[in-house]
Fold these 2 entries.
Entry 1:
Amino acid sequence: MSDQNLSTLLHEMTLDEKIAQLTQLATPFFKGASDQGQITGPMAELGITEDVVQNSGSVLGASGAKVTKNIQQAHLKENRLGIPLLFMSDIIHGYKTIFPVPLAIGCSWDLDLAEQSAAIAAKEAAVSGVHVTFSPMVDLVRDPRWGRVMESTGEDPFLNSEFARAFVRGYQGDDLSNDHVRVAACVKHFAAYGAAEGGRDYNTVDMSERQLREYYLPAYKAALDEGCEMVMTAFNILDGIPATGNKKLMRDLLRDEWNFDGVLISDWGAVKELIPHGVAADEKEAAHQAFSAGVDIEMMTPCYVHNGKALIEENILDEALVDEAVLRILELKQKLGLFDNPYRGADEELEKEIVFSSSHRHAARELAAKSSVLLKNDGILPLKKEQNVALIGPFAEHDDLLGPWSWKGSKEDAVKISVGLLEKIGSAQLSVTKGSDVKTTSQAQIDEAMEAAENADVIVLALGEHSEMSGEAGSRADIRLPQAQLDLIKALKSLEKPMVAVLFNGRPLDLHGVVDQTNAVLEAWYPGSEAGSAVADLLYGDSNPSGRLTMSFPYSIGQVPVYYNHYNTGRPKDAPDAQVRYVSQYLDIPNEPLFPFGFGLSYTTFSYSDVTLSDNVLKEDEPITLTVDVTNTGEMKGEEVVQLYVRDVAGEVVRPMKELKGFEKVSLEPGETKQVTFTLNEEQLRYYHSDLSFKSDTGEFIAYIGPNSRDVSAHPFKLEK
Ligand code: NOJ
């Protein structure tokens, strides 16, 4: 259908039909849905009429070729103008083949594999009838109390932007009409949802515009620059105005400044939440505010359908704005090819062939191994195949390995840790006991674990958080492992056997009571469908750990938020002339996190030498290059993430102590040396000034090169104009 036809179609639509297009409802509302019987409850509550359902524009959460085809067919029979539905779903880190959670994917520092994971998710979703995924989530995160940090790639704006682009490329490719392969992406949550006060979900966000632009906005912008088709609003307020009713964010910034012309959808129920936020007296005011601010589609509340017509008839809302919003939705349907084939990629045969295929699972295993971060190792890892192993802990045989946001993944299909270990060693060498549940234990459980451990050469602990302890509405104030698991570690420690802890969790934890009690710690996050295989590969050295943290692990909860790109303060603790007391510090703990951004160990070692700058003066049109030789000084092939940071020594406003400006993941054979080259140009030194202008300043800079944000060498240079 041509553009011209879309405007003809728009003009044929009645006002009611247009407003219904702007409403998104969940699957059970629709005829043809297998769970349609459940509609009475929500239908009654929302006050949605059959008429609205027949004319609504999109469905939330439907999937499966058969189901989506049935729904579309039933819909087209009843929709007067034959406008197809858009099927949107949360395909966050895989459809049925579940990859590690996004925070873990971030720790891979591997953009190609991240893109590949999104492409596989898109393929599986597309043949199952899904058109749009509510991903990537690119909220910058600094507070591990917030349960949704597992959905983000971490605390750095540059790295998050690179991952945002990789995910969008993976989902959308260059051609959305490739209907068995691609789905449209929806970047979320616009904006700054990750900065919820105290890490409590849905809580207040307040920050300067400079802070917002410098740290929080870049990743959303990067996703849009990559062509991301949709944007979802956030639940939080920003500068006193809920994001979902925030004209400055949506009309002024997103539409006018960034020229975004795709579809903007509210988060679930967020339009009606303008009432409890206290900025709308009723649903009518909520509809007015959200719509005027720029929300095209209202997800799962009825403010638009109940009040849209009245708002226009009373001249409170301009119908031209409604037309614009509807046209954007029709255009997306057209781009996806739905007017030509409303069933698009949905295909039962392909679904059987592609979904959860062995090649997809293989990719999941690879990414899971590359996403785990080795935090400590006194030499006990990798394990030797002749050792007898006592696998102990709530995750030893648990299937809770997919994380809280794997909507279509089946836990039963995930490879358990015990099964992964059995692939490596015989059953006579492996004992498996729980020792504790996630939150509780008993003396009997501990005794059983102690007995198993007595007969083993090494104890492998599979510990962590239940997946419901993170994710949406999964904030925690105490981010240690539950006491039951700490008690288990303590009891086993008395045996004085080597202990390896493997952690399954959705956030950086306070690891006191774990790191100090064990010989090795592997942060495996929620590794996904291939969890057991990937973890066993790592424990036995068939994969060499190469993950590096993208979110700092606090020394203690009292430090939070703690992040690498902080400011120096006027009284830095480590200044040469620092006083003993009157400096910026805690009296009882260090300022530094337990494990910093960029940190992770390998089974081999790397050395850095011969850092060379092509020039120590950088000019506007004359970038400089920095080269470093990286050598594998150990005995196993391994991958190192070489990191480049920069500090602007004296800015017009304060500048971070370090900012990540480049990285490269290199693979090195034992004894091999590779030269890594980074280019730095003037544009990379720009930042937001006090008047919000984005520019660089001449003067002194320091480049830092190293394996993480802490252990770096410093190389001064100047910017001249
Ligand atoms: C609420 C979540 O905040 C959002 O991330 C998700 O996409 C929607 N629900 C739809 O399920």
Entry 2:
Amino acid sequence: MKKVLHISSECYPAAKAGGMGDVVGALPLYLPAAGAKSSVIIPKYANKWFKGKTFKAVAKGSFAMGPYQIDYKIQTLKKNTLGYDLYCVDLPGLFDRDSIYLDVDGHGYKDEPQRNIAFQTAVVDWLAKGKTSFDILNCHDHMTGLIPFMVKYATAYQSLSSTPTVLTIHNGMYKGEFDWKIANYLPPYSSQHDGILDWDHKINSLATAIKCAWKVNTVSPNYMKEIMRDAGPMTHLYHMEEHKCLGILNGVDTKLWDPSTDSFLEHKLQDHVWVKFKQQNKTALLKQFGLKSRRPLVGFIGRLTDQKGADLLAEALDQKLSSNANLSMIILGTGDVSIEARLQELAKKYPKSVATYIAYDEGLARSIYAGCDYLIMPSRFEPCGLNQLFAMRYGTIPVVSDVGGLVDTVPDISIKGNGIVFGHSNIYAIQHALERAIALYKEKNTFKSLRSKLVKLDYSWSKSAETYAKLYQSLINSKV
Ligand code: ADP
């Protein structure tokens, strides 16, 4: 069976900040059935998950990074119940922090370039020693985007140059751009290859990976189409590399996201009685947050950013509630301080209609998926979006903008689909979608039969895992 190493900065349950963590934690569980054994390697953080575990050493090494000598250790869990091998890279002083990306001030770590380069060099350095080998290296997002370059062009790592690399883009907006001043932090390579690292006079990790990886995939087919049309200053690059690009839809780990066994839920689904399951969870949520009942409950979970349309949602909601719209809303997320403040202000203004919870809280997220009637995603762009899939699995109707992976997974009910879809995310479109949701809620039978339809849909990983496995095999075949 071919062996794949997923290289990532996130992997649920060890470290998750968003959808990439879900994907890297789930895909390896589904790949063996499709003929590919997966392992995962991530940095060793100092969060609760890592603190509660014991590790054993697999390897150690050191390398120069600019003026610094970096020592690293590769470790694995002493007792592993994850279902795949998880390696972590111990880099003291760089990753032994609680948060994955954000400093205590809520901004990204200032030493992000050093952290990313150190992690990637340590992984490649370890692989080049050759004691543990893999047939494919699957890099995830810009944080691992320099690896396809390192294995091709770093003089010390040439032994890896025939190992195929795949770049999976979970979010093309983040590029990992560094000033050229720190180019000497990279493992030595011939300066004739500088141009490969460069995009718009910066070292651009994502652009480098798009140039060097053997294949590039986004996490939904429609998002790939969208970035081919417009990826800002990188559109031209995507066009040049179009021959090796494809989109593979994300899936749901149906064992982990199972309303009948979800350990986060106080009220689990029993004997497929969905009405009771939804009622119990909705009642608990309304009570917890002091919200009005006898009206639809709409949830929002995610980063409070422009990408997710959280700013638009706040305005749309304010206008709707000021004209007494009959709905309650619960918002869970963290992000831009101005959007957080605006949403908290709304909760104060309409305490019986809006609850805003500023936190990252896996348990509450599960309760929202389980207890809401609708989940709204007014995203301006959405590479795949997992929330709508989790929502449907927990009997919650998605209300989504028609972008990215949302288009691939949520057709509108007017065309016999499974959710409420609105064009271009703007305040009026969101308001209209909420009106449709309120109207649908009143049609009890239609509402219930839509819910019954949702929970039977199959968005599991099995099909997409097969597509990944075929992709890996095609690269292995192309070597011969
Ligand atoms: P992203 O662009 O942030 O990766 P996705 O839709 O791909 O968005 O994935 C989001 C994942 O992160 C889902 O598992 C969602 O439940 C989770 N999530 C996002 N924000 C929060 C939060 N504040 N608390 C708990 N889970 C969250």
